[in-house]
Amino acid sequence: AAKPAGEVLRRTRETLLPAMLSSWRFWPFVHLITYSPIMPIEFKVLWNDIAEIVWVAILSVIANDEKVTGQGEAPSEEQRSPAEQPKMADELIAVGGN
């Protein structure tokens, strides 16, 4: 679904800095291992592919983080889909509610 340009720009502004900071922490470590003598040449491509999968997971967490996107409130009971209703009881039990 297409989103309005203003919303896209707002989300980009909110997620760009956390993504860049994470990138600067993640990729130097990966490349330090990749180009070091401890990594056998036959495993370098596999290592980079695995690092790429981990990196995409990190970006997904950053892009969907409620604190970063400003949508920190949990949905109310009425806003939850029927499939999510049973999960609400489990959440209450987990936090000590009866």
How would you portray this structure in words?
With 98 residues, the protein is an all-alpha fold. The protein is 66% helix and 0% strand. It is built from four helices and no strands. It has helices spanning 5-34, 44-64, 66-69, 85-94. Helix 1 (5-34) runs antiparallel to helix 2 (44-64). The longest helix has 30 residues, at 5-34.
Tag the structure with descriptive keywords.
single chain; 98 residues; mainly alpha; elongated
The dominant shape is elongated
| Largest β sheet strand count, sense and barrel closure | none
What is the terminal-to-terminal distance? 39 Å
Report the helical percentage.
55-70%
Q: How many separate helices?
A: 4
Name the structural class. Answer: mainly alpha
Give average pLDDT, whole number: 78
Low-confidence stretches: none
Q: Element order, helices and strands?
A: HHHH
Instruction: Give the strand tally.
Output: 0
Strand content: under 5%
The radius of gyration over CA amounts to 20 Å
Q: Gist?
A:
With 98 residues, the chain is mainly α. Helix content is 66%, strand content 0%.
Per-chain topology:
Layout: H1 5-34, H2 44-64, H3 66-69, H4 85-94
Helix pairs in contact: 1-2
